[in-house]
Amino acid sequence: MASLNLEWISVFDEIYKSLSVSRAAETLGITQGAASTTLGRLRNYYEDPLFTRTSRGMRPTPRADALHPLLRQVRENLESAKIGAPAFDPTRATRSFRVCMTDLGEIALLPRLLNHLQSRAPGIQIEAEKITTDSARRLEDGDVDLAVGYMPQLDAGFYQQSLFEQDFQCIASESHPRIGKRLSKRAYGAERHVEVSTSGTGHTVMMDKALAAAGITRNIALRVPSFLAVAQIVGETELLATVPRHYALVMLSRERIRQLAAPYELPRYTVKQHWHERFHHDPGNAWLRQTVAGLMPSAVMSPPPRR
């Protein structure tokens, strides 16, 4: 049995509506002969006359009556596909987006994003997950819609947008017995530190390379898997931490810590959002990317001052 040609569906639909081969051909911009040929193929395909001539003109057969709503829907779907994806209306949409990010992203972005969605996109849900070494594969497979953070491993093979520049600062307890308003190179080398060891991001590797180039080896007293508790730990101990500037700024109002300039030249880096090609033209994903870019805190969007 021959395959059903999709162009035949339009011919069938127009003949059904006009009950005239010539008018159907005129509507579709084809010759009457081409329309008649297509009708003949449809009759062979369905093994039914589909349309017969009567004293009142051409009339559909019962088989044509049964087929019409089905083929009409197919034609409408094809027309919609030609036009493209419908516009994304966040005020009406009900959709869940999965975003992978660092814990720094959770602190800087999630509260603002959720407050924005509450009033402007109440049907949108966000599923946040940690950036890991598996995040690239999950983006490729479509399991994740967007990745936000410092992830140099995603710079190749993914679309990306720069969000803001960042650098490092040191934090110490307000009551630290040996650290005042300035942090010397000697004190930095002598004091004990807390280090964040995260998978999937490049913060630790980048900073370690810079310190190694300066001939500095930190005395690491504690390693933790995320930044979330670092400021509290620093505020309640005599440990130092070298952290992204925005994290220090946010935590100044929450913990008993002070922010200090690092005594060594540490690198700057760019926080980005990344997405896979399969989502590049998706209206919902485009809206999410635009929303994320617009909601980054002004303290972060402005590049930190250079020393």
Quick recap of the structure?
The chain has 307 residues and is of the alpha/beta class.
Key attributes of the depicted protein:
307 residues, alpha/beta, D-Maltodextrin-Binding Protein, domain 2, 3 domains, five-stranded mixed beta sheet, 43% helix, disordered C terminus
Structure explained in plain terms:
The chain is α/β, with parallel strands linked by helices and 307 residues long. It folds into 3 domains: 6-83, Winged helix-like DNA-binding domain superfamily/Winged helix DNA-binding domain (Arc Repressor Mutant, subunit A, Orthogonal Bundle); 95-155 and 275-301, Periplasmic binding protein-like II (D-Maltodextrin-Binding Protein, domain 2), CATH 3.40.190; 168-260, Periplasmic binding protein-like II (D-Maltodextrin-Binding Protein, domain 2, 3-Layer(aba) Sandwich). The chain is 43% helix and 21% strand. It has 13 helices and 12 strands. The strands form 4 sheets. Strands 4-3-5-12-6 form a 5-stranded mixed beta sheet. It has a 3-stranded antiparallel beta sheet with strand order 10-7-11. Strands 1-2 form a two-stranded antiparallel ribbon. Helix 1 packs across helix 2 (21-28), helix 1 packs across helix 4 (62-83) and helix 2 (21-28) crosses helix 3 (32-46).
The largest pleated sheet is described as: 5 strands, mixed
The end-to-end distance, rounded to whole angstroms, is 77 Å
Overall CATH architecture of the largest domain:
3-Layer(aba) Sandwich
**In total, how many domains does the architecture comprise?**
3
Question: Which assembly state applies to the chains in this document?
Answer: single chain
Beta content = 15-25%
Write down the Rg: 31 Å
Helix and strand succession?
A: HHHEEHEHHEHEEEHEHEHEHEEHH
CATH superfamily of the largest domain: Periplasmic binding protein-like II
Tally of separate helices:
13
| Helix-and-strand structural type | alpha/beta
Total strand count, please? 12
CATH class of the largest domain: Alpha Beta
CATH topology of the largest domain: D-Maltodextrin-Binding Protein, domain 2
Strand order of the largest sheet: 4-3-5-12-6
Mean pLDDT: 88
Secondary structure: helix percent: 40-55%
Shape: rod-shaped
